[in-house]
Amino acid sequence: xxxxxxxxxxxxxxxxxxxxxxxxxxxxxxxxxxxxxxxxxxxxxxxxxxxxxxxxxxxxxxxxxxxxxxxxxxxxxxxxxxxxxxxxxxxxxxxxxxxxxxxxxxxxxxxxxxxxxxxxxxxxxxxxxxxxxxxxxxxxxxxxxxxxxxxxxxxxxxxxxxxxxxxxxxxxxxxxxxxxxxxxxxxxxxxxxxxxxxxxxxxxxxxxxxxxxxxxxxxxxxxxxxxxxxxxxxxxxxxxxxxxxx
Length: 246
What we know:
α1 (17-28) crosses α8 and α4 runs parallel beside α5 (149-169). The chain has a single domain, classed as 3-Layer(aba) Sandwich (Rossmann fold), CATH 3.40.50.720. The longest helix has 29 residues, at 102-130. α4 links the parallel β4 and β5 (132-137). It is of the alpha/beta class. A 7-stranded parallel β-sheet has the order 3-2-1-4-5-6-7, sandwiched between helices. It contains 8 helices and 7 strands.
């Protein structure tokens, strides 16, 4: 039997990277997936030619109105929601407290922290019907510093939000866990890694000396989404190649 047979899932930030890998893997494992992203043109490039179990949908995670449409569409298509993966997020290097603008701060919070909160609020009435799993994709930046004030604060907030929700929702049979990736080779990090000193930075910072592939994170998300992790809630799964072990 496939690991997500008969499950219905929403995966955000699915145009590429971790979200795309997770949506594709979920479909392979038997789930029906509503894959969402703000970049609908890129999303549709692969969803239209993929398994019919994956449907692409334009989605701004910082908009409560968009979340309402996403949840309504998932329920209309699949009849229920079993899994919510809050993967969409933004990141760029080089910010510090001094040069981070107020607008930039709010943008990070709106996407990386408010987005998952809005998503859970919208999906909760349907998750409560039969229980389910929420996976919030945070970062090692939610555990250790050095990644810019806005990004670190948003991902640290998501880590604690996950724990609070886990306690609140346990009575409904809903599990909430956070994933904390280290460096992952995605469209968002590709330019940064390809820049001057990028490969040397990876070699020196990560004991494994490389970035992860999106699929390596997708398998971690699959574990947290599936019934195999039935006793895990409020947990933080760190998959970082040993970076935070130092």
